[in-house]
Amino acid sequence: MTTRTPEPTIKGARWRAKKSVHHGSRLSMIGQNAALAAIIVFCLAPFYWMVVSSLKSPDEIFDNSLVPAEPTLLNYEAVFGAENTFVYALRNSFVIAGSVTIIALLFGVLAAYAIARLQFRFKTTVLALFLATSMFPGAAILTPLFQLFAKLGWIDTYQAMIIPDISFSLPLGVWILTSFFRAMPWELEAAARVDGCSRGQAFRKIILPLAVPGVFTTAILVFISAWNEFMIANSMSQTPDAQPVTVAIAQFTGVSQYDKPYGTQMAAGVIVTIPLIILVLIFQRRIISGLTAGGLK
Amino acid sequence: MSLITSLTKRQPATTSSDPARDIREKDGRLAFWLVVPSLIVLTIVIAFPVVWSFVRSLYGDGIGATPFVGGDNYANALWGNGSAEFWDAARFTYFFTAVSVVLEVLIGVAMALVANRAFRGRGLLRASVLVPWAIPTAVAAVLWKWAFDPNGIVNAVTGWDLIWTGAEGPSTVAIIVADVWKTAPFVALLVLAGLQIIPEDVYEAARLDGANARQQFLRITLPLVRPALLVAILFRLLDALRMYDLPAIMTGGANGTTTLSVLVVQSSLSQLKPGYGGALATLTFLLIFITAFLFVRMLNVNAVEQAGVRTPRKKDSE
Q: To 5 degrees, how large is the angle CA A145–CA A252–CA A245?
């Protein structure tokens, strides 16, 4: 790949580099801004449409105006109205996704550390097993799990969703954590041990703080995948006592029962998405600073 | 660990015991206890249902006694009564996967490159990239169902009068659009993480050597971001092949948009045919397994080639 080309003189190289940087920056300023705008529109336009639709009354919603003529909170009232038990759904989603994140990360960190750092015999087999389980379509394990949980009397309980969700997040978590652990500056661990730390101390005091950004990145992915889960929850939860938001939204009734409940569904969608966006913005700083500070410098 | 071995190398051990081997055994025991909790969870939730599903697929369906039928359920799905719906679902699933993943990778890499370069508006960009990714698929499905409604925004903007979920072509387009919008940012996020660990000095050195932007992208960015990108593609591939939420909510699987997952759930839970559904589940798993195996296999070959190229250079520099 790096066949040696005749080296340009230092003077020539510097001149060329300067020129290309200058040239590139002016040209790319316009393109850069256009690209930025395109990405932002691509990502936000549908979300904007969800917000706008949620603020329209049932009479107005089908006129497709980009700004609501008479913004109304009618849909939001309907979301929290008596016929939709959305508050319970929010609570259920928080309990389920929160538990899944904590448990999956606990297990995932242990397994990923072993795979990234330790020599053991069936390492490839274990990794292959994780990969294989992540491939198995959720639809295929739904029926057996449903029958098993029904026998245990677990239908419509949190654990009937938490346990399957953990196993869905584990492979993803282990994969991301393993690649993150592999990239960490383990020389520091060795250095700490030369200075008299035990393996456990070196892990707690040196490695764990460095691993925090990677663990948080994984936590966000796991939390969101658990929060988003629909298929398992759709069969395992049958009453508002256990239904998470994804199932609740799909079953919404509208402001009046005769129209399509799009306005109400959009309002519920906005409510469900806002905690996620807040979460993501908080953790984002950690991810960015973590990824740049994580390197050995 | 490497330090210990190097220490022992410097001071040759006088005893006959092999310290490296001791470490390996210690590692093995520790690794066992670290990996076992995860494996137990996966055994209960994945392995048990998989085995149950397979065993159940060998028995018939019906009220009361379910006789052993051997491979009849599989024969039924592959070339019997059910073959049309099975192969239709398989075709749709693979078409959906191929188109969505290609679009997602192209858009995702482009987004990541722009995001990595941007100085102004970086915060806004990051925040907006995360919005589609953060929205639950079920909510995105409802949102796009509304957008593709006959009276919805898509028809209003394009001036068409399409009943999007009324025919196979438009339904497929609607589902692919929803999936690409939802997950291209996810690809961008993973690629961006890969881009950010490439030190700026590497580009500076390349520029000093006279490499243009295209060469920098092909020779530096792409090879260095490749591992992150491949992991992203693999996960997208596995996800797309078992797509359930979008078609289930947007079309209910109507008009040829039944994916393999939708078919499995319909057969085993809605139609109460766990035997036939079990056979479909096993076949679906096999298809996904083969696809992923081929993908990973190709990666390994490439990884080995890369290592082969790199080794002499590493020696050179040391």
A: 50
